[in-house]
Design brief:
alpha/beta; Rossmann fold; seven-stranded parallel sheet; 13 helices; 46% helix; globular
Length: 336
């Protein structure tokens, strides 16, 4: 039996589809029953055989903060895919992110130790890796270093990884993946869906940064390959292509038959923008739409290498153009 945390998220839902399509029976943890309907819709987007595949999933309502609920969910489970996480650049949610991402992972790993789970795959992020040195591509060997430009999300994922490595020393074989920006069918207002939503709303601006992008279908396949392999206590960076935000947004606009953003936003403007937005939102009592972390992330230029995974598994990643078109088809479908 397999357990997937974060089963209703972008990665978790695609992992469930991949595993059930292969004939696996899976337990999946969820927090909100309404989000299960999104998973059903996703399955039906990919196949007419969705109902049969969905029958292979046992849904379990649980919180990562509830150790005993996790222990109960792990009964009879031999493999765990831990994809549940909270992503936010809102400073007010920093403590909550640490609770969910770090303490929640600690609870899960402790429960895995107690229940003698055979292997755990943790879906981390490139946010927990170090930064580029002299313009070189970032890979698994670039170590995370604390500095003033580290987001609370980055810190929470780094701390969560430490809990996973700690459990590996205590007897649970683990593997960690560090995906770049994951592109795939998802709710407009979640994960990378927000990038598509910005284009849909006619956003005229684009930031000057660049980053890596990877198709969610590649992430799901990579997780399964790693769990089926004899690889233990290793990490793998997953990245399809490195693109500027200008190129990425232009590709999204074309796939959605919309106008691409034309105006480049300078670093100075973003620095002024997040400060002004913070003040206005504080006065209005609302969460900021632009934060220091999100503004600086949009202007940073980072390149990533997935050569370790490519070579070890002879793997070819899906072109990001195809990933974008797959997502665009999904967004068009859910609007009908």
């Amino acid at each position: 039996m397999i357990l997937v945390t974060g089963g209703t998220g972008l990665v978790g839902s695609h992992l469930l589809f991949h595993l059930t399509e292969k004939g696996e029976k899976v337990k999946a943890i969820y927090r909100n029953s309404s989000s299960i309907e999104e998973v059903k819709r996703l399955f039906r987007f990919y196949t007419e055989d969705a109902d049969r595949l969905l029958e292979r999933i046992q849904w379990i309502e649980a919180e990562l903060s509830d150790y005993f609920a996790l222990e109960e969910a792990l009964r009879g489970v031999k493999q765990v895919y831990h994809s549940a996480a909270m992503v936010s650049f809102n400073p007010r949610e920093s403590d909550k992110m640490l609770e969910v991402n770090t303490q929640g992972t600690a609870h899960l790993m402790n429960a895995c130790l107690k229940c003698q789970v055979k292997k755990v795959c943790y879906v981390s992020s490139v946010a927990s890796l170090g930064k580029s040195v002299d313009g070189r591509q970032i890979d698994e060997m670039v170590e995370w270093q604390p500095d003033d430009y580290r987001s609370a999300y980055s810190y929470s994922k780094f701390r969560a990884e430490m809990e996973v490595w700690r459990a590996s020393k205590e007897g649970v074989p683990v593997v960690i993946v560090n995906p770049t920006v994951i592109i795939g069918p998802v709710n407009w207002l979640r994960s990378s869906g927000r990038l598509f939503y910005s284009i849909k709303r006619g956003m005229p601006f684009y930031p000057g940064g660049a980053t890596g992008f990877v198709d969610v279908r590649d992430v799901a396949k990579a997780l399964a390959l790693l769990m089926e392999s004899e690889v233990m206590n290793e990490r793998y960076l997953l990245n399809g292509e490195n693109l500027s935000f200008k190129t990425f947004f232009t590709m999204v606009a074309r796939a959605m038959q919309l106008r691409p953003p034309k105006i480049k936003v300078s670093r100075l403007v973003t620095e002024l923008g997040w400060r002004a937005n913070l003040v206005l939102c504080f006065i209005a009592g609302k969460a900021p739409a632009i934060t220091k972390d999100s503004a600086r992330s949009a202007q940073a230029s980072s390149k990533y290498s997935a050569e370790k995974f490519r070579q070890q598994f002879n793997y070819t990643f899906i072109p990001i153009k195809d990933a974008i078109e797959n997502s665009a088809a999904w967004f068009k479908a859910i609007e009908k």
